[in-house]
């Protein structure tokens, strides 16, 4: 038989072999063992991703809980320091400012502070600091009322740290003179509470000293309650 005559017979024998090879590979790739191994690999990958996500979530929750606990502890320490603190409230500047001053005194006392009302302000931050150290004061409070056009006025209340002698907070309220006391009653504490609390915490720390002996000038003693309009 010639070579040309044998080629079709050769092709007939090799084609089934290639088909069988492909079928064998397909069968091997889709056998139960391979499918099980593939599912196991996918499951492990999914579990690893899930565990990683849980760890991240847990860390975020833990950090949030820690921050919340620190904030609560800080707020508690500040409230305790305020309740144990002493404040000096100076005479306020401006006409008819005494009702506003007494409202500020009432707010401080309502939050537990002991208030001294017969001191006069000094000239420098160092002098404020030294006087506070000598008298165990945590804060000072200044205030003033200033008239503005159209029958209105602005009340400004300033808080000064007894530890540093520097101003730490200021709040202003604008309205008619009749409204000012009510505006201060409603809004002052929320605006000065945080810096005031931090100043009281600092004042409780040991080691406060004043730089030199001081001669403290007190103003005219003020009664514990404001006089009524009828003089009684």
Radius of gyration: 40 Å
* Strand composition percent: 15-25%
- How far apart, in Å, are the first and last alpha carbons? 144 Å
Q: Helix count, per DSSP?
A: 5
- Protein structure class: alpha/beta
**Sequence of strands across the biggest β-sheet:** 2-1-3-4-5
Under CATH, the topology of the domain at 81-204 is which? Rossmann fold
Query: Which regions are unreliable across 5 or more consecutive residues at pLDDT < 50?
Result: 1-6, 220-225, 227-232
| Helix percentage range | 55-70%
Question: Mind describing the biggest β-sheet?
Answer: 5 strands, mixed
Q: What is the subunit arrangement here?
A: single chain
CATH H level, superfamily name of the domain at 81-204: TolB, N-terminal domain
How would you describe the shape? elongated
Number of E-type strands? 5
Quick recap:
By secondary structure, the protein is α/β, with parallel strands linked by helices. Helices cover 56% and strands 16% of the residues. The chain contains five helices and five strands.
């Amino acid at each position: 038989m010639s070579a040309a005559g044998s080629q079709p017979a050769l092709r007939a024998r090799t084609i089934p072999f290639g088909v069988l090879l492909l079928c064998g590979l397909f069968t091997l790739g889709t056998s139960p063992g391979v499918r099980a191994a593939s599912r196991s690999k996918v499951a492990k990958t999914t579990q690893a991703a899930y565990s990683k996500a849980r760890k991240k979530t847990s860390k975020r929750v833990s950090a949030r809980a820690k921050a919340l606990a620190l904030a609560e502890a800080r707020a508690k320490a500040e409230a305790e320091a305020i309740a144990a603190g002493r404040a000096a409230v100076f005479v306020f500047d401006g006409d008819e400012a005494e009702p506003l001053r007494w409202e500020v005194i009432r707010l401080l006392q309502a939050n537990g502070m002991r208030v001294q009302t017969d001191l006069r302000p000094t000239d420098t931050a160092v002098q404020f600091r030294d006087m506070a150290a000598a008298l165990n004061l945590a804060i000072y409070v200044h205030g003033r009322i200033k008239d503005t056009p159209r029958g209105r006025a602005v009340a400004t209340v300033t808080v000064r740290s007894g530890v540093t002698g520097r101003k730490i907070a200021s709040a202003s309220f604008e309205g008619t003179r009749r409204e000012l006391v009510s505006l201060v009653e409603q809004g002052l504490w929320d605006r000065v509470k945080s810096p005031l609390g931090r100043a009281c915490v600092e004042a409780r720390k040991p080691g406060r000293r004043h730089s030199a002996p001081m001669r403290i000038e007190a103003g005219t003693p003020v009664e514990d309650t404001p006089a009524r309009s009828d003089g009684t």
